[in-house]
Amino acid sequence: MITAVAERPCMVCGDGSPMEPAWARIVAFHQESSNTASYSLQFVDPEKRKQYQFLPGQFNMVYLFGVGEAAISISSDPTCCDTLVHTIRHVGSVTFAMNKLKEGQCVGLRGPFGSHWPLESCRGRDILLVAGGIGIAPLRPAIYQLLKNRDQYGRVILLYGVRSPQDMIFKEEVEEWQERRDFQVLITVDYPSEEWTGPVGVVTKLLRRVRLDSQRTSVFVCGPRVMNRAAAHSFLSHYVPEDQIYVSLERNMRCGIGQCGHCQYGPKFVCKDGPIFSYASVRNLFGKDEV
Amino acid sequence: MKNRVLYTIDKRELDKLIGILVRDGFKVVGPTIRDGAITYEEIESTRQLPVGWTDEQEAGKYRLKRRDDDNLFGYVVGPHSLKKFLFPPKQRLFGIKKSGEDGFVFEARQPEPPRYAFLGVRACDLAAVDVQDRVFKQAMSDPYYAKARNEAIFIAVNCPEPGGTCFCASMGTGPRCSTGFDIALTELKTTFTAEVGSTRGQELIEALEHETTDANTSHLVDLMMDIASEHMGRSLDTNDLPSILLENLQHHHWSDVAKRCMSCANCTFACPTCFCSNIEDQTDLTGEHAERWRTWGSCFTLEFSYHTGGYSRSSPAARYRQWLTHKLASWHEQFGVSGCVGCGRCITWCPVGIDITKEATVIADDYRQSRSRQESASLEEVGS
C-alpha cells in the first residue's frame, strides 16, 4: 500500500534544492562486526536538527564529499530524532569511504525518504519480524516502537538470520531482547562456530519453531533478495494474508524523490512508494526476473 | 468542439512578435536547420526558420526536402524537444568546498534558468511539457524546471500536415493544440490564424496588427485539422493497452525486439517525456572542491539498474520491455497519463527503425485474438 507522502515527515536537505545535502556530524561510532559499524549523526544546523523526524523503516541519502551518495536506512529510535543512527556495512564506494571517517567529521544527509513499517495499522496483531544480516538495521526502529508500546500488540517475534555468529550486529541489544519474556527472539546462522549451540540454516527454517496464528499475524521482512522471496512465499503457504506481509526491497535509489527513475520496479518508485511494500501491492512483480 | 476565437495576423507580424519577446527579455527558441535536421535553437528573426523546407520521416529515416511554397512551419518535429531547455541534458546541481575543520560550504548552486519564449512548438511538445510537469513539479519540485517552465511563453503551431511517424491523434494530444499555449498559430498562405490561450497571449496579440478571423477561414482551419487527424503516419490502438502490456511481461516478442535493439538509448534522448537522470559526484585533483552533476540517463544502459545486489535488468529484452511498458502502461499509474505523446521521435531516430506502435500492437493483437478465441470457445461450451 502506498502511504500518502503528506503523512510523512518533511525532508531535510540543503537550502538550495532537494538535491543538496545538509551537513551532519558524526558524534559517536560503534563497531558492530568486522565490516559493519553504527554512526550516530547530528545535523550541524540546530534548526534542521529540530525539524528532522523519521518513521521506522525510512532511509536517508548519505553523501560523502565528492564520493557520492548511498541510500541507508535509519537504525535508531524514532522518538529520539536529535541524534540518528546509520548502521552501515562497508561494501560499496560510499560506504568504504564512510569507514575512513572519524568522530567529529561531517557527512551530507538528505531525508528521510520512503514508506515505513505499518505499526499503526498493525495494532492488536501478532508481529513477526524476519531479518537477514544487515536487514535488521531498518527493523530496529520498529522493534523499539513495538517494545515501547508492547501492550498494544499481540505476540512479537524476531527471526534473525546471519552468516556466522561473528557477523551478528546489535549483539548486546539482541541478547537483552532474548532475556525478555514478551519478545521471542530466534537466531540462526549459516556457518556455525564451535561455540554455537543454536539453529543452523536459512532463516525460514526457524518458522517451524514458532506457533504461527496466520490470520492475526503481520510479517515485516528485510533481508537479501533471495531471503525476501523465500520468506514471503513461505508465509503465503502458511496462509498469512497477502496484505499483511510487508517486505523492504532494495533498488538503486539515487534521488529519493521519484525523479531520477533509477529505482523503478514496474510502476513503483522504490524510493517513494517503497522501500516497504505489502506483498499484495507488488504481487505481479514480486520474484519476476529482470523487472 | 469548443468555440474558439481566432485572430488573423499577417505573416510579417511574426518578426514583430519576436522583437517584442526579445525586448521583454525572453530568449526566443524556435525551429531552425542545423546539421541536416530541424532543431530547436535560439533565434532572433523569422529568417532563421526553415522557410520553404519540409521533412520526410520514416522508421529510422529523416530527410529534409524543399517545399513548393515558402511556408515557415511546413514540417513536423525534429530530434529536439523542449526537454533540453527545461531539463538540461547536463547540469551542475551544486559545488562545494572544504572549509575549516571538517566543514563544507556551497560555492555554486543549481543555476537560474533564462526566460524562454518557445516559438513554433507543436501540440505533442506541449503535451510532453504537461507530462514532465507531473514528474518535476510535484511535492518535491526541481527548482530549475519549475521556474523555467512557469516563466516560459509558448507560441505553438498546429500541424496541418502530419509526418510519417506521427501518431498524436491516437494519443489524444494533437494535431491541434488544445491547452498549454499562450498563442496557437495555424499557417495559411499569407496569414496566420492565432488562437489565444492565456492573458499573456492576448496581450501579445493586442500588440500586433490583428483582426478577428471570419467564419469561413475559421471553418477552414477546423477542416484542415480534421483532415490532419485522419492522415497520421502511424496509429496505435490504446484500448486496454496498459493492462494488456502489464499482463504480457513474459511475451516472446520482447526477445524478438531485443534481437534488433542495440540499446543505444537514442529513443530515450529523443523522447520529449523521458525524464531519467544520472547523478554524478566528483572532486577536482586537489580534493578540496566537489561537485554534483545531473545528466540525462537511460534505462537502456546496463549500469542504469545497477545496485549492490547486481543489475536488475541485464538483458536488452528486459530493458526494452521496461521502456515500452513504462511509456505506455506504468506511466498511467505513476502520473495519471500516458508517457507517450505520439510525436514519433523514437521511431524516426531509432537507428534500426524499431517502431513503438508496431511492437506494442504485436503484443496487444496477440493477446486480444487469444482472448476472443477463448471467449468464443466458452460460448460454444455454453451452447452445447
Topology summary:
The complex is a heterodimer of chains A (291) and B (384).
Chain A: E1 22-33, E2 36-43, H1 46-51, E3 59-64, E4 68-73, E5 84-89, H2 93-99, E6 106-113, E7 126-132, H3 140-148, E8 156-162, H4 171-179, E9 184-189, E10 217-222, H5 225-237, E11 245-248, E12 264-265, E13 268-269, E14 276-278
Parallel strand pairs in A: 7-8, 7-10, 8-9, 10-11
Antiparallel strand pairs in A: 1-2, 1-6, 2-5, 3-4, 3-6, 11-14, 12-13
Chain B: E1 6-10, H1 13-23, E2 27-34, E3 37-42, E4 53-58, E5 61-66, H2 83-86, E6 90-99, E7 103-109, E8 116-121, H3 123-136, H4 143-151, E9 153-157, H5 168-171, E10 183-187, E11 191-196, H6 199-206, E12 211-212, H7 215-230, H8 241-247, H9 253-260, H10 266-270, E13 277-283, E14 289-296, E15 306-307, E16 310-311, H11 316-335, H12 345-348, H13 356-383
Parallel strand pairs in B: 2-8, 8-9, 9-10
Antiparallel strand pairs in B: 1-11, 1-12, 2-3, 4-5, 6-7, 6-14, 10-11, 13-14, 15-16
Helix pairs in contact in B: 8-11, 9-11
Description:
The complex is a heterodimer of chains A (291) and B (384). Chain A has two domains: 22-112, Elongation Factor Tu (Ef-tu), domain 3 (Beta Barrel), CATH 2.40.30.10; 126-248, Rossmann fold, CATH 3.40.50.80. Helices cover 15% and strands 29% of the residues of chain A. Chain A has helices at residues 46-51, 93-99, 140-148, 171-179, 225-237, and strands at residues 22-33, 36-43, 59-64, 68-73, 84-89, 106-113, 126-132, 156-162, 184-189, 217-222, 245-248, 264-265, 268-269, 276-278. In chain A, β12 (264-265) and β13 form a beta hairpin. The two termini of chain A are 19 Å apart. Chain B is globular. The N and C termini of chain B lie far apart (49 Å). By secondary structure, chain B is α+β, with helices and mostly antiparallel strands. Chain B has helices at 13-23, 83-86, 123-136, 143-151, 168-171, 199-206, 215-230, 241-247, 253-260, 266-270, 316-335, 345-348, 356-383; strands at residues 6-10, 27-34, 37-42, 53-58, 61-66, 90-99, 103-109, 116-121, 153-157, 183-187, 191-196, 211-212, 277-283, 289-296, 306-307, 310-311. Chain B has 13 helices and 16 strands. In chain B, α8 (241-247) packs across α11 and α9 (253-260) crosses α11. Chains A and B meet through loops of A and β6, β7, β13, β14 and β15 of B.
